[in-house]
Design a protein that fits this description.
The chain is of the alpha+beta class. The protein has 2 domains: 73 residues; 49 residues, no CATH class. It is built from 2 helices and 6 strands.
Length: 150
């Protein structure tokens, strides 16, 4: 069995398929595509699974060509009308120390615990970090604010 070098994500929402492929060795986004499939619904708002199956198959072939690897595993994210999206900000004073992956993971875990503590009836399907905001502090004043999109 060979080790796979990529994590592949398929996200379905009400009208769009988003595809993302991340290189496991450097966490770099290697492939991204947004594709609408609204036209795959009929007049009764039922999804045409034959058309959707063909769309998925075409995209898998395209990703396999791009990565030069056969796809064995896919992270599948499905958003339904019952899905709820939350936006949340968390902060941590790193006291001038270099920010590590563990620092970022701690903030994500802290956010997750806060959400679950106050929303006991819900479960978390996935967490997407949209950006990081770094503040450099000089003599008690904010010298510069840098936003880093992910």
């Amino acid at each position: 069995m060979s080790k796979k070098n990529f994590d592949i994500y398929f996200e379905f929402n009400h009208s769009e398929l988003n595809l993302a492929v991340f290189n496991k060795t450097n966490d770099k986004l290697e492939y991204y595509k947004e594709q609408t499939y609204e036209s795959y619904f009929n007049n009764y708002k039922e999804l045409n699974f034959e058309k959707l199956d063909k769309l998925i198959e075409e995209n898998i072939i395209e990703i396999e060509k791009s990565t030069k690897e056969y796809i064995r595993d896919i992270y599948l994210i499905v958003q339904t009308p019952q899905s709820i999206s939350l936006k949340l900000s968390v902060t941590k004073n790193n006291e001038g120390n270099k920010i590590t992956k563990e620092d970022a993971m701690y903030l994500v875990q802290d956010a997750k615990q806060q959400i679950l503590k106050t929303n006991k009836e819900f479960g978390i399907l996935h967490i997407i970090v949209e950006n990081y905001v770094l503040k450099k502090i000089m003599d008690g004043f904010f010298d510069r604010i840098v936003s880093i999109p992910t």
